[in-house]
Amino acid sequence: MNRMKAFTLTGFLAFILVLSACSSESGGNSGDSEASEDSVTLTIGSWRTEDKASYQKIIDKFNEENPDINVEFKPSKNTEYNTILNTALQSGEGPDIIHLRPYTPGIELADAGYLEPLDDLEGLDQYSDETLAASKGSDDKQYGVPLNMSTTQMFYNKKMFEEMGLEEPQTWDEFMELNEKIKKEGKTPIALGTKEGWLLSLSHGIIGPAHYGGNEFVDQITAGETDFTSDEFQSSIDAMDELKQFFPENYEGLGMEDIRTMFFTGDAAMFPLGSWEIEVLREMNPDLELGFFPIPSAVGKEPTITTWVDGSYAINASSEHKDAAKKFLQFMTTEEFGTMFTEEFKMISAIPGIESEDELVNALGKAAEEQSTPYMMLVHFAGGNPSTKATIETELQGMYLGERTPEEVAKTVQESAQSWYEPLQK
Amino acid sequence: MKPATNSNSVVKIKKERNWKRWTIHLFPIPALLIYGLFIVYPLFAALTYSFFDWKGIVRGEFVGLKNFKDLFTLEPFSGLFWNAFGHNILYFVLQMVFQNGLAFILAYIIYKKVKGSEFLKIAYFLPRLLSVIVVGFLWKLILNPNYGALNVILEKLGLEQFQKAWLGDPDTALISIILVNCWYGIGFGVLIFLAGLQSIPKELFEAGKLDGADGLSMIRKIVLPLMVPSFMIMTVLTFIQSFEAFELVYAMQGSQGEPYHSTDTLAIYFYRLAFGGSAGGSTTAVGLGSALAVVLFLFISFFTALYLRYMQKKQVDM
Amino acid sequence: MNHTIWTRPFYYVFAFLIASISIYPILLMVLSSFKTSAEIFTSPLSLPKTFNLDTYRNLLEMIPFTTYFMNSVFVSVVSVLLILITSSLAAFYIARFTFVWNNIIFFFFLMGMMLPIKLGIVPLFILMKDLNLLNSLWSLIFMYVATGIPLSILILTGFFRTMPRELEEAARIDGAGNLRILWNVVLPLMRPALGTVMIIQFIQSWNDFFFPLIFITDDLKKTIPVGMLSLFGEYSADWGALFAGLTLASLPMIVLFFIASKQFMEGLTQGAIK
User: Is the minimum CB–CB distance between A115 and chain B shorter than 8 Å?
Assistant: First the structure.
């Protein structure tokens, strides 16, 4: 009896093995298609698993002009993308075209020699210097083609505002007032949770400029003429602290999913997130009347929308198909691509002057051009280990939990920046 | 049977015996080969990273023990290290009590053939079948402060004062994760202890009964001593796993040790150093990360070796 | 010892309470897989309104589940077989024979658990590249065997040591070689331990997502966990599909467990006490 069982089990296993080996063999053969003489296959690595379908359309368009260049968009899970990419690059492998994380992480790859310089690429001159800076190496060579601008601002529920008789605030005091009013009506004014640190530097990216004085401050601090313990910056931290009265109940335990749900179900009136949320929100609740407003300044300056380049495309220095890859990147600098990109992805193209049919995206794009201030922590202070950006995230988190005072937050941020940012090290 | 007295057959038998004795040394070779090539070699290659300076992911010059020194003397590295280390100790203690302690009790109950033992066995082991990602995801939902099952149930029981933002409050976040880990691992403990209990020969119990021993002293005199292999396995395993705790913490709270450093463990800290945080804007410190891994390894191996030697002596005494 | 504890209600209640805590989250997952996204948010704790299989149907259209399934089966089955073979041989050697270097070898194997394997990912990647195993299911198999050996040896060695020597001695006198002894005498008595190792290692290989994530780039070669991970990003809006995916990903393990537990865990008492 035992032997019979053993035999049948082994036989069954052997059968499965043979079956699987066959299927994975044949799957394998069709998978890594050796390029026929004239056609080439490029792989694109990215973290945007959400955009797979949209990229297929882009690729189809590209293939109209370039039929013998096959392009495969192969995204990896967002949270693991850096590990996967870095491991492959360090081993001499990796996709032909790489979706670069903005600023420091991407530049790190360039400085390590894993990317191909693109200075001779057509179409690079249409981008502003700030846009190109997101993927410019420390050797001053350009390594990436900017893809899109992301913005972060206050989204709001138009219907709720209407019902409560509220209007977009023009001054900081008006902003605080409408928060109070919403709270009195029993709704949550701002949908923000503090469980996930990255949300905190993001919302500081919105609120901060209103208090530290926008672009002027950024210019000063990047030149080392002021620092994070200055009154201006301190007041931005104090403001973050003050706003917690308008966060939802149990905000310490709420993460991204929770606050997004609160907003699109109409429990909260405002949502301090990024432009990439537009598509997601609409999918979750197509009836949501979504609006945004630039944050009014508390120090008498202009209202601001916080912007940054949110990804560029680069070429793997060890790719075997650099010419083909360059063609694809070149396609990404064309107006044709820009328009298609904005339509499909509902994001703001980094190519200047692209208009979108989507009213909201269009308005956002325009505001981004006219009233922008950079997401300072991401653009300038993502270096160091732990990075200054990560430091402000943890410190703000500690502040909301009552473990840190706003002064301690500012001081720790300054210490972090001083440890690696040269202009602040004098 | 005629005894083999003539010298030829004696030599033949001796040769056979030698051959058999010699082939035994081949037994561990396959395991050693695969393990050596795919685990030992890459790990030790990577451990050497700790002796170099790293700029991002590019290796710089040889710096000897500088990374180790920085890890223990520079802030914020030192503070983060000891913070994480304390968390790992808590991890170990809680797992020993709530995972292994409970597992033993449950295994004993099942061993006594309680009605429904089959169901119990399956129920306890079911969580272990899930992927850690799924476990983390499900429990994040359950622990959600506003609509998670735990808080909802507490409310229904009239125990609102115990409601908390379990994963958002630094006082409860790590403990919640550890308890979820116990939930996950208890089934394995039950299996191991059950297997251990079932390998105790029944005759011993009969003999004990004849000697007039009652339940509790039977446990003390017969069960516990014979369960030493099972205890040893679970203790060593739990020790190693709790100091290497990563997967579930990562699944539930990400790699930043949030909220406010309260869920940081040594392996999570290692991941942050060696691979950067998981979000868009973090940098890597490969040298420090490797140094941390070396320190962790030395710590775990030292204490495990001590424990194993101690247990070996004890077994010999038995 | 014959007294049944179920006459002591405390232990009974205790055991079943813990059992319900063990089961609840899984029940939650399965029930949610039958709900629509809206239902999941508005009434998370209640029974689903309908039990239709729409969410599952949607899911199977979005993801090549059968391909992932066959890949997972292949990888896990081969891995577990290799682990059992290599670990039994090594554990027998360590447990039964008192060679001077045995403790060192045992500890050598344990060391593998004391380091985060992620540490070595870059040398590993290069190794796989040099062995031409990148993007091949065999890269996964070798990793799972290598990472599974330490735990398996720990468990098996522990249990091999508890075995009475008399049987072995008898077999040896009869002229049996070491391999024969292992196969005919030792292993049959070790069924609980072997069963445990088999189940644990199968789970380990089946549920791992890290190595497929790093080594496998071809969509058709992916295993179930990686395939399911994509659900979190690509289809984040459809919670019903998400839960259906999680349930489907867990189902094979649950089914296998039911089958295997009957094989290895029932009737153990027979073999063990002899």
Answer: no
Q: What is the distance in angstroms between the Cα of A65 and the nearest Cα belonging to chain C?
A: 26
Fill in the amino acid letter for C274.
K
Query: Does C185 contact A at CB distance below 8 Å?
Result: no
pLDDT in tens, A297-330: 999 999 999 999 998 999 999 999 999 999 999 9
C105 at A interface, C-beta within 8 A: no
- CB neighbour class for C39 (10 Å; exposed up to 12, middle 13-18, buried from 19): middle
- Determine the pLDDT at residue A227: 92
* pLDDT given at position A14: 52
- Chain A 368-387, CB below 8 Å of chain B: which residues? 377-378, 382-387
Query: Residue written as tokens 């335990």?
Result: A253
SS3 A188: strand
Query: What residues of chain B lie within 8 A of the CB of A105, using their CB?
Result: 276, 280-283
Q: Rounded CA gap, B108 and B230, in Å?
A: 13
Cβ within 8 Å, pair C114-B300: yes
Chain A, window 395-424: residues with a beta carbon less than 8 angstroms from a chain B beta carbon: 397-398, 401, 403
Average pLDDT along chain C, 274 residues, taken 10 residues at a time: 56 88 91 77 70 78 84 94 93 83 88 87 92 92 95 87 77 75 77 83 91 89 84 68 84 82 52 35
Domains located in chain C, CATH noted = 52-273 (1.10.3720.10)
Q: Classify domain A40-147+310-333 at the CATH topology level.
A: D-Maltodextrin-Binding Protein; domain 2 (3.40.190)
Which pLDDT score, from 0 to 100, does residue A1 have? 37
Burial of A194 (0-12, 13-18, 19+ CB in 10 A): buried
pLDDT by residue (tens digit) across B178-237?
Answer: 999 999 999 989 988 988 888 787 777 777 777 776 667 777 777 888 888 888 889 999
B191 touches chain C (CB under 8 A): yes
CA distance B281 to chain A (A): 6
* Domains (range + CATH), chain B: 58-317 (1.10.3720.10)
Distance, CA of A414 to CA of A14 (rounded, Å): 64
Domain chopping of chain A, boundaries: 40-147+310-333, 151-308+372-425
CATH superfamily ID and name for A151-308+372-425: Periplasmic binding protein-like II (3.40.190.10)
Of the CA atoms within 13 Å of residue A248, those in its CB half-sphere come to 28
